Amino acid sequence: MARFVLRRLVALVPVALGASFAAFFLIHLIPGDPAEVIAGIGASGTDIERVRGQLGLDRPVLVQYALWLERALVGDLGMSLVSRQPVLGQVLSRFGNTLQLSLAGMAVALGLGLSTGIAAAVRRGTLWDYVFTLLAIFGVSVPIFWLGLLLMLLFALELGWLPATGMDGAAAFVLPALTLGLNAAALIARITRSSVLDVLGPGLRPHRPRQGREPAAGAVGARAPQRGHPHPHRLGAAVRVSAGGAVLTETVFVWPGLGRLLTDAILQRDFPVIQGGILIVALSMILLNLVTDLLYAVADPRIRYD
Taking the chain, what is the end-to-end CA distance rounded to the nearest angstrom? Predict the structure, then answer.
């Protein structure tokens, strides 16, 4: 187990460096000059060049990246161009709100996805199976922002049961969590159905057993190990999709989370916040992958020797 953990930790080093590289260089794809933003409207060319020199923007790009990475390693992600506050503090203050929404959405996704996926597999070939499959396809195909607007229109504007925006009180969690959870639940349901059918085997039809043809209890268990262990990884990927969808959900429901902070920073050309926010999101997903791999290794020792 110790060797498995060490291999995963070593493998994360280039991934983390790649994430930091992408977080730094993505801002160069955004139109606009940070020096012009800081200098202000109507600033002369001399003022803009002076600000560019203070920020180190006149240096080679790789040198800028090395200096930024050196500061990031000690927790210094720079200062916001808009609020003039440390970027790390702003990002961490919003990260908690995003984490709450992600956990609520994953709870909805796992609860609905696992239950409907198992029900569809157990009743394979029946009307319920076709209904669940169509709903799953619909859920995967529907854009998350359209689903959020639809739920907001129905439950907030038409019925007035739930608040449309904000995060004041438990009721404010319902619509964002449903939007995030329903979108991911459809994917989890399809994965769960496939996984259960793979374990049960093609010859087993639990909803319509035939006398004298039911397999022995050990038959299913004998087949399952021969089929490997790809499905937990696919289920883990679905959970990560749920976490990633929080950015769009926060934008629709004006949720004061990290996704909303990044959206505002992009519109305001607040480059340090964009860099710091993307870096924190990337590192969070890397950490989630590591935790997921470790949980798989604990549940299935065979994974440690892959």
Answer: 12
- CA-angle at 173, arms to 170 and 178, nearest 5°: 135
Average pLDDT over residues 144-172: 85
The CATH number of the domain holding residue 240 is: 1.10.3720.10
pTM of the model: 0.71
The CA distance from 157 to 185, in Å, is 25
Name the β-bridge partners of 79.
86
Question: How many angstroms separate the CA atoms of 56 and 171, rounded?
Answer: 47
Do residues 223 and 201 touch, judged by C-beta distance below 8 A?
A: yes
Domain hosting residue 260, numbered range:
94-206+224-279
- Average pLDDT value for the chain: 77
pLDDT in tens, 235-285: 555 556 555 677 778 888 888 888 888 888 888 778 888 888 888 888 888
Higher pLDDT, 182 or 232: 182
User: Higher confidence at residue 87 or residue 226?
Assistant: 87
One-letter identity of residue 204: L
Q: Rounded distance, CA 41 to CA 99, Å?
A: 37
Task: Confirm whether 191 is domain-assigned.
Answer: yes
Residue 260 covered by a domain: yes
Does some domain include residue 87? no
- Alpha helices for the chain (secondary structure H): 2-25, 34-39, 45-55, 61-72, 87-122, 127-141, 144-151, 171-200, 217-223, 231-244, 246-252, 258-267, 271-299
- Is position 241 within any domain? yes
Q: Is residue 219 very low, low, confident or very high in pLDDT (cuts 50, 70, 90)?
A: very low
